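Hi all, posting the design record for the shared folder.

TITLE: backbone redesign
STEP: 1 of 1
STRUCTURE INPUT:
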């Protein structure tokens, strides 16, 4: 038997909500609109604005179904460490879904419901990309700190590519843990601090300026500079000067799938470079500190370390709420 659907509640008070036409109303008369079929539980203009622009513009760039590769699939299941067949009767929470690359990878491989939250207008792209799963995808726009679900609701939760871009990494961990049942699992990945040289990088030198530019101006500048940056990138590689690549204002394209054609490579480079320079927050963490955060909020650690998958690697923590 399938679990019952998890109802939305007021993210500020926990009150039950009543659906009336195109809005949810709490017992204390707080109103949350439904726009383009997606419930909105936060202000639409927020610190995640750059991600909304990014994922609505590059809405299909990283989707496995669009690129004809299985990078998101490989990354998701390697990081999660779950058996897809064991999830069919569970309710799963995804926090920070973007355009839905991991939403798709998850729903393609399981039969269970997925409750997916994003703080930005990227929910629009996710809705379009994963419309075929609409009966199992419960998508809303909300803050990681004010999610519209009661505490202790979910069997499992994943949060990929998100935590370093939130205002408080620790508070974000606390929020994820609160929504999972006792004995439930939380899996996250994050940008690691690999020593003092982590922040000796063009991204951290330039971000104080670039994050203050209008997002459209920054995107225009990146689009114009990428061809030259890619050329310099290849020259440095050819002459075995790869250590200088970190000073270029471009993402490290060495991590891109080898199967990308030239057009796709340029598109990925523009998208990932914008992702580096536009966010309001970029907070890499030490693995040991993230493990301490989970323990502080009542979890035991199942795994903490580097996960390698076909197409790349990432630093992951898997925890169980106790």
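Okay, here is what came back for every position:
SEQUENCE:
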């Amino acid at each position: 038997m399938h679990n019952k659907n998890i109802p939305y509640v007021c993210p500020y008070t926990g009150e039950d909500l009543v659906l009336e036409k195109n809005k949810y109303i709490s017992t204390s008369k707080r109103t949350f609109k439904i726009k383009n079929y997606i419930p909105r539980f936060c202000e639409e203009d927020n610190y995640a604005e750059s991600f909304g622009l990014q994922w609505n513009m590059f809405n299909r760039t990283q989707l496995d179904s669009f690129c004809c590769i299985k990078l998101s699939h490989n990354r998701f299941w390697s990081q999660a460490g779950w058996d897809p067949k064991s999830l069919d009767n569970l309710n799963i929470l995804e926090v920070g879904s973007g355009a839905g690359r991991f939403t798709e990878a998850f729903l393609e491989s399981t039969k269970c419901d997925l409750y997916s939250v994003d703080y930005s207008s990227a929910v629009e792209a996710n809705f379009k990309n994963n419309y075929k799963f609409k009966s199992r995808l419960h998508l809303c726009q909300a803050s990681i700190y004010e999610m519209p679900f009661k505490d202790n609701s979910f069997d499992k939760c994943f949060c990929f590519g998100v935590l370093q871009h939130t205002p408080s990494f620790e508070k974000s961990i606390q929020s994820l843990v609160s929504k999972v049942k006792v004995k439930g699992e939380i899996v996250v990945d994050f940008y690691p601090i690999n020593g003092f040289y982590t922040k000796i990088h063009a991204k951290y030198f330039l971000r104080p300026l670039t994050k203050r530019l209008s997002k459209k101006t920054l995107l225009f500048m990146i689009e114009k500079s990428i061809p030259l940056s890619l050329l310099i990138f290849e020259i440095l590689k050819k002459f075995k000067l790869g250590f200088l690549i970190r000073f270029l204002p471009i993402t490290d394209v060495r991590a891109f799938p080898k199967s990308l054609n030239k057009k796709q490579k340029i598109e990925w480079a523009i998208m990932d470079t914008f992702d580096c320079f536009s966010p309001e927050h970029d907070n890499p963490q030490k693995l040991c500190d993230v493990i301490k955060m989970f323990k502080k909020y009542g979890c035991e650690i199942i795994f903490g370390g580097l996960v390698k998958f076909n197409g790349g690697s990432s630093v992951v923590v898997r925890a169980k709420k106790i």
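COMMENT: DSSP finds ten helices and eleven strands in the chain.
Let me know if anyone wants the other runs.
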